Amino acid sequence: MTETATPRRHDATRQGLDRRAFVQLAVAGGAASLAAACGWDGGNAIRPGLLDISRVNDWVGEKILFSPTRLARTYSPAERSAMLPSYFISAMMPMLVNPSAWRLRVDGLVRQPLELSVDDLMRMPPVSYTVKHTCVEGWSAIATWHGVPVSAIVEYCRPLPTARYINFVSFDSGYSNGWDLASALHPQTILAYGMNDQPLTPAHGAPLRLYSPTKLGYKLTKYLVSMTFTERRPGGYWEDQGYPWFGGI
Amino acid sequence: MRLTHWVTVLTLAGMIASGLQIYEAYARFGSRGGPFFPSPFDDAHFPAWSRLGGWLAGALNWHFALMWPLVTVGLLYLGYLVRNGEWRALLFRPRDVRGAIAMAKYYLRLRKDHPPQGKHNPLQKLAYTSIYFLGVLAVLTGLAIYKPLQFGWLTALFGGFQAARYWHFWIVWIFVGFTITHVILVFAVDPASLRAMITGWYRGRFPSRD
Asked: How do residues B62-80 score in pLDDT, each as one tens digit?
């Protein structure tokens, strides 16, 4: 009895599962075509889930894939691209009224807060490299950058052990980017005051911008005013609108 | 097993639709200022119904979320084929070349009788092996674009960041072509297999066993 009944029951379960799986698929298929039809970013129902997965991807990018020592390929200055697009979020190009009064403020969880002028930065050991700029939109361009490593600033300001992030803030309508400390300490992450053998122009973030070939362009804060060491993860202009927070490549 | 097929259909559709939205942000292949790879899709805008995500960030989040189930299902499917030994019926090997030529001759009416075959004929094996290989290439070119510094060796292997974008994009059209052909053949040759793929029960006749 039992021997014949068991496979029959098994069959019934199987069929039931198949039907359920089919209905689930049909529902999922309907939702997916609806999403495709509406050009959705997921709507209020799915968007939070997508952002949660984006945070998982940030974690994978930061903790598993990122190498603090792997260097981006460098090029010869002859390989520079004809152009490097730039943008700002203010209505007009952000320019300093009094450039000589400008200072970079280094504060937050540090033993030694700093106020640095461009001249102060230029007296520190300089770094120059020609690297490929990668934009989240999919374009790329090669340019040369001149500045000082963020790691050198870190040696001067001496962050507290609780500091895990840096918030880079600009005077371009408050545009900002939160960075993980490891990416900021990468040897190719610099505060750039020059580009292509010239002083940085207002179009590219004068007087000082963050530069690094380890991250997408939107993470490279232009028009810097301050870098603040924090314990909690700072957001950012695009990051708060849904772009990946880590933005590492 | 059937579930992996339909999950692949859905996630791949989502990957393609979000990919087309991502493509709109920079509809070129090449560094700023050129030179550009030849492509009929330069500055192309794809119709709204074919795009997913609404804008670049939305599309990126769909793309980088759906990559997980798609790769997982691809690996599960491969694991299943290996465990059950079914890969033997699907993998195109050098010894299938002769049979593939015979089969092609038959289809082109250069040969009258249907060549003998196993579960799948050598041309089917070639198609299914190629499409899986193409899937692997899609993932690898994707990684080369996603992390061109951390996977720098992979990006270099595909000829650089812009070249990897180029190949990643073209693989999509091969997938689309395969899918259209695949669906036409299902309806033309063995419509009963469609129901079998949905319900799990095959009520048709096996043409290869006639």
From this structure: 999 999 999 999 999 999 9
pLDDT-based confidence at residue A31 (cuts at 50, 70, 90): low
Q: How far does the CA of residue A108 sit from the closest CA of chain B (Å)?
A: 30
On whether the CB atoms of residues A132 and A213 are closer than 8 A, the answer is yes
The CA distances from residue A16 to A20, A88, B173, in Å, are 6, 58, 37
Q: How far apart are the C-alpha atoms of B191 and A74, rounded to whole Å?
A: 56
B91: in domain: no
- Give the closest of A21, A32, A137 to B3, CB-based: A21
Name the 3-class secondary structure at B116: coil
Q: Which residues pair with B42 in a beta bridge?
A: none
Contacts of A65 in chain B (CB under 8 A): 147, 150
| Same domain? B80 vs B134 | no
Residue type, B35: P
**Of the candidates A61, A55, A45, A59, the residue with the CA atom closest to the CA atom of residue A242:** A55
Q: Which domain holds residue B142?
A: 96-210
| Chain A residues near residue B198 by CB distance under 8 angstroms | 22
Phi, psi of A67, deg, nearest 5? -115, 125
Same domain, B167 and B136: yes
What is d(CA A34, CA B10) in angstroms, rounded to the nearest whole number? Answer: 12
> Which residue out of A13, A27, A73, A140 would a mutagenesis test of the B interface target, given it has the greatest number of B Cβ atoms within 10 Å?
A140
> In this prediction, does ipTM exceed 0.95?
no
Residues B116, B15: Cα–Cα separation, whole Å: 39
Residues 6+ apart with CB under 8 A from B68: A53
Same domain, B151 and B189: yes
**Nearest-neighbour CA in chain A from B102: distance (Å):** 39
Which chain A residue lies closest to B55 (C-alpha atoms)? A41
Chain B CA closest to residue A86: B32
State whether A70 and B149 contact (CB < 8 Å).
yes
B28, B61, B85 - which closes a domain? B85
| Global pTM exceeds 0.90 | no
